[in-house]
């Protein structure tokens, strides 16, 4: 991860938790298995050290509305108690020692921070 991107990420910190949106496209030659090795290598210790919690993990289906090439194999939402906790994790030598497994597993990915919004109108019924 680029240190300048982390600096911007921290400078834009509105405070509070952050949920990281991960859109993942695996290499066809064992990428999914390599990503699983990355998850296992992170282990419970790193998860506990930085307070991360997986909010959602799912396989991507056929996109109903998307530009060409925007089909993702997996969608993952991970909550961190703060942006600083995320930055500390990716700078941790234990994390860096296994992060190559993530890069080796993926053809393409998106890692985007999100923060909760308070809806201006009640969300009732379906919203598309």
Give an overview of the whole structure.
- Helices cover 38% and strands 25% of the residues.
- It is an alpha+beta fold and 128 residues long.
- Helix 2 runs antiparallel to helix 5.
- The longest helix has 20 residues.
- The model has no long low-confidence stretch (mean pLDDT 91).
Write the layout of secondary structure elements.
Blueprint: H1 3-11, E1 18-26, H2 31-50, E2 53-59, E3 74-80, H3 83-91, H4 93-96, H5 99-105, E4 106-114
Task: Name the descriptors.
5 helices, four-stranded antiparallel β-sheet, single chain, 128 residues, alpha+beta, globular
In a few lines, what is going on in this structure?
By secondary structure, this protein is α+β, with helices and mostly antiparallel strands. It contains five helices and four strands.
Number of helices: 5
What general outline do the C-alpha atoms trace?
globular
Major sheet: arrangement of strands: 2-3-1-4
- Give the terminus-to-terminus CA distance: 33 Å
Beta-strand segment tally: 4
CA-based gyration radius: 16 Å
Order of helices and strands: HEHEEHHHE
Structural class by helix and strand composition: alpha+beta
Beta-strand portion reads: 25-35%
Average of per-residue pLDDT values: 91
Model regions low in confidence, pLDDT < 50 over at least 5 residues: none
Percent of residues in helices comes to 25-40%
- Main sheet attributes: strand count, strand direction, barrel closure: 4 strands, antiparallel
């Amino acid at each position: 991860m680029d240190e300048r991107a982390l600096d911007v990420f921290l400078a834009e910190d509105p405070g509070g938790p952050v949920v990281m949106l991960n859109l993942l496209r695996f290499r066809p030659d064992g990428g999914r298995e390599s990503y699983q090795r990355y998850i296992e290598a992170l282990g419970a210790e790193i998860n506990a050290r930085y307070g991360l919690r997986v909010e959602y993990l799912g396989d991507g289906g056929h996109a109903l509305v998307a530009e060409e090439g925007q089909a993702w194999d997996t969608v993952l939402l991970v909550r961190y108690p703060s942006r600083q906790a995320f930055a500390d994790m990716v700078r941790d030598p234990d994390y860096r020692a296994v992060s190559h497994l993530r890069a080796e597993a993926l053809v393409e990915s998106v890692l985007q921070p999100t923060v909760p919004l308070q809806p201006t109108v009640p969300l009732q019924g379906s919203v598309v």
